[in-house]
Amino acid sequence: VPLDATHHPDRQSWVTSANALESEFPIQNLPFGVFRRLGSAESPRVGVAIGECVFDIAVAARLAPQRFTGEAVGTAVAACAHDALNALMALGREPARKLRAAIADALDASDADAEGELAAALVPMTDVKLLLPAHIGDYTDFYASVYHATNVGSMFRPDNALLPNYKYVPIGYHGRASSMVPTDTPVQRPVGQRKGPNDLEPTVGPSRSLDYECEVGVFIGRGNTLGDTIPLTDAEQHMFGLCLVNDWSARDVQAWEYQPLGPFLAKNFATTLSPWVVTMDALEPFRAPAFSRPDGDPAPLPYLSTPENEARGGVNITLEVRLQSSAMRARGEPPEPVSRTSFTHMYWTLAQLVTHHAMGGCNLRAGDLLASGTVSGPTKGERGCMLELTWRGAEPLTLPGGETRAFLEDGDVVELAAWCEAPGARRIGFGTARGVVLAAASS
Amino acid sequence: VPLDATHHPDRQSWVTSANALESEFPIQNLPFGVFRRLGSAESPRVGVAIGECVFDIAVAARLAPQRFTGEAVGTAVAACAHDALNALMALGREPARKLRAAIADALDASDADAEGELAAALVPMTDVKLLLPAHIGDYTDFYASVYHATNVGSMFRPDNALLPNYKYVPIGYHGRASSMVPTDTPVQRPVGQRKGPNDLEPTVGPSRSLDYECEVGVFIGRGNTLGDTIPLTDAEQHMFGLCLVNDWSARDVQAWEYQPLGPFLAKNFATTLSPWVVTMDALEPFRAPAFSRPDGDPAPLPYLSTPENEARGGVNITLEVRLQSSAMRARGEPPEPVSRTSFTHMYWTLAQLVTHHAMGGCNLRAGDLLASGTVSGPTKGERGCMLELTWRGAEPLTLPGGETRAFLEDGDVVELAAWCEAPGARRIGFGTARGVVLAAASS
After folding, report:
1. In this structure, are strands B139-142 and B369-371 parallel, antiparallel, or unpaired?
2. Averaged pLDDT of chain A
3. Burial of B282 (C-beta count, 10 Å sphere; 0-12/13-18/19+)
4. Report field, pTM of the whole predicted structure over 0.90
5. Is A365 in Cβ contact with B171 (below 8 Å)?
6. So what's the ipTM on this one?
7. Which of A213, B240, B262, B326 could be disulfide-bonded to A374 (CB atoms 3.0-4.6 Å)?
């Protein structure tokens, strides 16, 4: 896939905040999202992030219709006149790609008329609340990091850490859609049943081992009909774009409830999404080979294997988790990075997850979210959840100021961040998925 | 809870087909559903079943507004002007209860004017297609029959049949909402990964052990806010009504994929619902004590225990599964009953499932569906899936004409039916959840 003008690293915008080197949202990114102006009673609106602003697509198309011409762009603009991205996603890759290119042209610094025509379509990010990007019909969570699966397995099943199916089946399960929340939604510590190995009976109370999981989510664009499959060669055409997912987890609840049907209340109290959907088009310069399976691992089964997927099924995203205790916040200290890893460590590519999900005919719908599972790498500093980082609490983290953490405490803020860098490409970012832990409801 | 006029067993309707003793939909039932007139391009409409007809609520309220007065009934009628029951469900129990009572009065044989005023609101069932009753935001499947859990466990984990959490935790998992289909939707045999105990590697192909599961589903009425719980004393107020659920399952796919995160592709290719939602109000005469735990079982934890739930948390529903091969169909033979059981065998009540689901703050929304899990009883003839009935194929079923079945074959029709009977009450039925198995897609 050739890179095009939208990826050119030297391109600048007349929205000057986008040109700052540290900006996550330069003109080369233009992720889609949904927002509402603070204090307004208006319906949610569709926009793209540019520097420190949101570019309101419907307003822009009204102010300068001549910049949004052509059938595909017109269809895409019309699909943005909703309170969520589902309609745009449902159109498939091409209309969104062309709309993104038209927006890039409209925001380009070299266009002398653009700022005058379009400045009124910009809203400062400080003036908006960012919402969930889509109405998520179904949310699926995978388990695609072999490092995560091995670490967790060795804690929960010491004799049987990595199960025999792992290298054949992209393991996944259905998650809860209703409790997906946008960034900056506080997360209440759940109450649940817990039973330690030495307890005679379970007890009920607030989770004592609340955790985060740092994941990447892919929003489905064009769906498939019930009964149809999505061959691996087509899977990328069904992927609209990516976001960050914090799959908050109550480990004590999980350990007691998860057999034989998987996690349930341990996960369904909240899942936090980052607000911006970075399109697969924006990610083109950062594609990478699929995971290189070590000698002795089986090859992927034929339906999960193409040369194209092997050559560039991966995405080189750097992911960082940051923690901030309430004491740190009181002292004015920023969230502290506690791990950093790469999405190239994943055993399965996103395209393999999409293809596997539909192999039995399950219909994926526009706006469905498939999350990767915790992104962990081979070294300790690359572990994407506290369960792994602290080895179930045995090796607590130390925060600035000397506080220690086995698991999350009330008042802790968890912030996921991510960015992509590559030689010859402008760095782009994902924004953050952030939430503060609130005390459990009193019972 | 006192029975009221809507339950009186001698009440008759001017819709005379409702008065036939074998009718599932007498005036004492009046289940809600969603339909579209065959051949019409209209939006789906909300109605109730009466005898062999559907009573179109919006049309009735237009023809005879004086019969649908009062604030609660007016609100309920307005909520029926949608393409699904979600808005009516969201109002909670009282408006739907009053609307059902008003409809019963309007359909009562003793009202000399009613037929003249309202006959035009009736549509013969043969002239409609019945659709899903609601937009199901989230579907959860439980595992609430201890007989089913024990049978399945002894096949999949001979040394460890019933896991230690079973009698404390109402085990459940999130299912797939997108592939829920209304009755009479054909079900395509899924392709998946299967691996027998003696296979060196998994293979990909059509499931060789396709199964049904006979379950009861409860539609959530009024929801709860994220972070709030639903105490057991309130749980029934969040339950709108019940339907039948066939949780089609590919057992070979399930056995290979389900560890450690639960069933995924084994279940998400199709789930069939019966079309009519029998309200909790219509079920009042059939309430029964909760399961009587044998000596030695732990008492339910306090959050899952009230005297009221113990006394009448159960529902006495008889469930029947019928099979019809294509050869039987060609010979004009009806589906053959292969098992019959009672919903009173369930270890957990529906109210306990609702309360457990929300105990960590998970938000349930109007129209969400919670299914019970396979309803199996203590004897062989009461087993609610083929895995149990044939003991994983070891004891095949024999159908009329001599065909045998270890699992489902292409062309087989599975039909779930259910009814309630009690002394002093009119018998009511659920209608059917039916589907024919189609051959796998050629690959």
Report:
1. parallel
2. 97
3. buried
4. yes
5. no
6. 0.97
7. A213
